[in-house]
Amino acid sequence: MNTSVMLHAAATPTAPALVLRPWCLEDVDAVVEAYRDPTLGRWTSSRPENEAGGVEWIQAQQRGWAVGDQLGFAVLEAQSDTTAPQLVGNVVLKDVAPGKPSAEAGYWTLAHARGRGIASRALETLTTWAFETFRAEGLEVMELLHQADNVASCRVAQKSRFEFARTLPAAPPLYPLDSHLHLRHASP
C-alpha cells in the first residue's frame, strides 16, 4: 500500500485547512501526549503511556499500511505559512480488503481541537477518499462504531452523513458498553 498518501481538506471561512498523512516516528511525542487526555482514554482501547508505547503505536499504524488493512492518518491543522502544521487528531480506515463490501472508519481528536468541526471534516475527507480509492474493489458501505454514551461521536457521525443503523449490545471485554453503528453508503 502507498504510505505516501496525503489527503487535504480545504480551509473554510472559519477553519484552517487540514492535511491527513500516514503516521511517522516523528509523531511519537505527540501521540503519547494525546493519550494522556482522560477523555480520549475513556473512548479508546490502546493507551501508549511513554515513548516506547508511542513507538509501538506508530509501528502498528505503519504495519497497517504495509498490510493494507488499516490505514491510519495523522490529522494536521495548517498554520501560517511560516509555522508547521499542528497535530489535531487521527482518522483510520479499518478492515478494508478487495472484494469486501464494507470497511470501518474511526477517529479521535486532541482536547484542544474538539468542538471545532475537525473530526467531521477529517472523517468526510477519509470517507470520500476511501470510496474513490476502493469502490472499484467492492467497497460499498462505510461503518462507524462508537460507544452509545459518546454523544459527541454521534454528532460527528451524523454531521458526516453516517446514518444511525442500530445499537449493538456490549461484548466485554473489548466492547464493555453498548455501541451505536452508523453507516454511510457510496453514492450511486
UniProtKB/TrEMBL annotation:
One Gene Ontology term, aspect cellular component: cytoplasm
Keywords: Transferase
Gene3D superfamilies, A to Z: 3.40.630.30
Domain N-acetyltransferase: 18-188
InterPro entries recorded: Acyl_CoA_acyltransferase, GNAT_dom, Ribosomal_N-acetyltransferase
Keyword check for Glycosyltransferase: no
Pfam families xrefs: Acetyltransf_3
GO molecular function, a single term: protein-N-terminal-alanine acetyltransferase activity
Stored PANTHER family: ACETYLTRANSFERASE, RIBOSOMAL-PROTEIN-SERINE ACETYLTRANSFERASE
Protein name: Acetyltransferase
